[in-house]
């Protein structure tokens, strides 16, 4: 085979390999193929990929005083809120100075995108972010809101200290609906607009599926859970005060 033809075939093959690597991500590429040109043949030699770096936590940096919640829409956009109504944002490199968006304690924030966040406070109001500025707080409940989760810009659920859930449909916050009569709900996490889990009360959890809440169910545990995160409909992780 003419050597120029060999090099042309090599170029085309490497182009395909590069496209494939981009599609699946270089970190997941299990085998890289290298061409070695000899007299008339190509020899395929497997090359072991470099090991991915082990994720590590950074050292703590002071950005505010009593931070109560944080949410990251991307690696370049995070929002943290505190107990005096302040918010700080992260741009991928550094945190901004805190700015006040509310007059009372913000208990929870959720940002499904860089263009939308919702933060709730202990006075029953919510403050939303539109990608450039924070709106004025609006009253959506008569008691304190403890947690909010927004899996999409068109869907959020907030829960309160009296067993109520309040849905957001992309335009309006709906009226509170009792899902756990009189019980303080500590946290909520929604993996999608069709699946959420709320926790609180006496070791209880409730599941939201397709627009309907389940009855409270008891977790076989002796300490109240304080936070939960659901990555999918098949996996959630909850934590408690003593550190379990």
Explain what this protein looks like in three dimensions.
- By secondary structure, the protein is mainly beta.
- The chain has one helix at residues 3-24; strands at residues 32-37, 42-47, 67-74, 77-82, 86-90, 99-100, 106-113, 116-121, 125-129, 138-139, 145-152, 155-160, 164-168, 177-178, 185-192, 195-200, 204-209, 212-213, 217-218, 225-232, 235-240.
- The strands form six sheets. Strands 15, 16, 17, 18 and 19 form a five-stranded antiparallel sheet that branches. A four-stranded antiparallel sheet has the order 3-4-5-6, with no helix packed on it. Strands 7-8-9-10 form a four-stranded antiparallel sheet, with no helix packed on it.
- The longest helix has 22 residues, at 3-24.
- The protein is globular and about 45 Å long.
- It starts with a helix and ends with a strand.
- Residues 26-45 have low confidence and may be disordered.
Structure keywords:
244 residues, mainly beta, 1 helix, 9% helix
Short description:
The chain is mainly beta and about 240 residues long.
Structural class: mainly beta
User: What's the gyration radius in Å?
Assistant: 25 Å
Strand content: over 45%
Main sheet record:
5 strands, antiparallel
SSE blueprint:
Layout: H1 3-24, E1 32-37, E2 42-47, E3 67-74, E4 77-82, E5 86-90, E6 99-100, E7 106-113, E8 116-121, E9 125-129, E10 138-139, E11 145-152, E12 155-160, E13 164-168, E14 177-178, E15 185-192, E16 195-200, E17 204-209, E18 212-213, E19 217-218, E20 225-232, E21 235-240
Antiparallel strand pairs: 1-2, 3-4, 4-5, 5-6, 7-8, 8-9, 9-10, 11-12, 12-13, 13-14, 15-16, 16-17, 17-18, 17-19, 20-21
